[in-house]
Amino acid sequence: MKLSKPADMASVRTIGIPRALLYHRYGVQWTTFFEQLGLTCVLSPETDRAIMDQGTALSIDESCLSSKIFLGHVAALIGNCDAIFIPRIANYGEYRDMCTKFHALPDLTRHAFHDQAPCILDTEVDLTHKRPEKPAFLELGLRLGKTKKETLRAYDAACKAQERDEKQRAKALHVTLKKSSGLRILLVGHPYVLRDDYLGTQPARILTEMGATVLFADDWSRNDARKACRSFSNMIPWMISRELVGAILSMKDKVDGIVLLTAFPCGPDSMINEMIIRRIKDKPILQLTLDAQSGTAGLETRLESFVDILHYKKEGGYGNRS
Known about the structure:
Elements: E1 14-17, H1 23-36, E2 40-43, H2 49-58, H3 65-77, E3 83-85, E4 88-91, H4 105-112, E5 120-121, E6 124-126, H5 133-143, H6 148-179, E7 184-188, H7 191-194, H8 201-209, E8 213-216, H9 222-229, H10 239-251, E9 257-263, H11 267-279, E10 285-290, H12 296-314
Helix pairs in contact: 1-6, 2-3, 5-6, 8-12, 9-10
């Protein structure tokens, strides 16, 4: 592999990682990789109102809420690390596309912070253009002044750590399904919505306080979910959307209701959620759209009403779709 800027990041010792977007999917892999190379990872704080407001001020109105929050996390890292890791991830092959925002994330960030010129460590994963993940990580290691052997060893450890984490989460989900009683609610959304401390954790907390067992769709085995999605549609281009649909199909008979959680205005969700609501008729579904102006009062009211419907249906009454 020939690099245009070999070892141009050799002086970097601390890597900042925004605790947003794909960190909630690949965070274990990323942090393990850099730590195995002897570098220190600095995570931005958990999302709060201040981070969201700062990211919103840096974004165009049309950006989804999760993208706005991401820029708030980048802002929190500037000055606290040597470089900020922002990969460009387009796809992992056919029908395994990422949302277009991930295609240009390093460029978007540089533009948003052009006056501060943060040091951004980027790479590209795009299998349709012959840019697989492993060479992308090898390039990262070489740019950081590490040897090929060191980098490949770190990448192998990172992949194994990520795989262990996913298996542990899937195992814990099955244990919960087996042992839980009472009302079970499946929370469905992109990992960076479900796992964000300011977005997805609020509905999960509210439902838990109401006595429901909350299950997260992104804990289901990704490979199994993608296979299950084939019976729903072979044409969904977005990998994460396929996994969420597959998880719903795999778990819908094990839960009492489904909550679709969306960050406004998510393009993929606007289509996929409509497909889910139209095609899955035998399970109550509540769709919640989160935006920067949302408070918790309206959220609590809708979730309370949905839980009442589920209890009524479970006790033998007729629960209609929310």
